[in-house]
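Hello forum,

I keep getting stuck at the same step: I have a sequence, I want structure tokens, and every attempt I make locally crashes halfway through. Rather than fight my setup again tonight, could one of you with a working pipeline run this one for me? It's a single chain of 250 residues.
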Amino acid sequence: MMDELAHLLRSKRYEEAVDRCIALEMEMASRNAINEDQNDSGFFGVYLASMLVIADYLGVIQLCERLETHGILLSADDDVDPMSKNPDLFTLRLLGQTLNQGDLTAAYKILNATSFSLPIQPIIDDFKNSLIALNKRAIATAYTRVSVENMCQMLNMNKEKVLEFILEWGWHYDASSSLVEPKSEEAQKSYDAEASAEQVNELAKYISHFEQKSLSVKLNNKTAKPGLGESGIRGETRDSHREIHASSGI
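Reply #2:
Ran it on my machine without issues. Output:
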């Protein structure tokens, strides 16, 4: 089974890799051998990181709760620093928690401050790419126009890098207003071809979280800037512009 898992990871077939990890976990649990067989961060780190790639953030949280019961992870409520045992696993848990709350900004901060061990780092690199794809879809789904400044915040990139992606994606950029118009077909693709109702919920949660943070900044500064909508974000949302298809259940 482990050889098959290694092959799936090399092939970047992460959904199948997660299924294989689930089967391995069940097999170990049936022998009461989880802590005995896999008491380091290797297998479970790969397991958690693969779930992050496929955006199964709730699955990350639930697996970490099971790992606590086996003593592989320490609880944040324990007297001992939870980072003192399997820090890779604890950091992956933090990523799952912040992303499940829709807080990509906090997730980026964790990623920027962390280097993972060798079995995990290549998967995390793919995870970072998946976050860019998620952000792209979120922006195209939510906005008819959005400022480059806000795209920099959402993508956690400098302006030069964001402009490179705008060119690569074929989105229209107006340098005079610093506004970007995402391709409308990208949003349609997100609804119809790629995004399940659960994925659309995740995107809406992220946009809502980002807008609430921007609104808080605006209220704290007590300064209204030209071009800001009610959300405090310079740009226009779809269905001002936030109606998600009724079929998504949002």
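The chain has two domains: 2-119, 130-248. If your local run keeps crashing, start a new thread with the error log.
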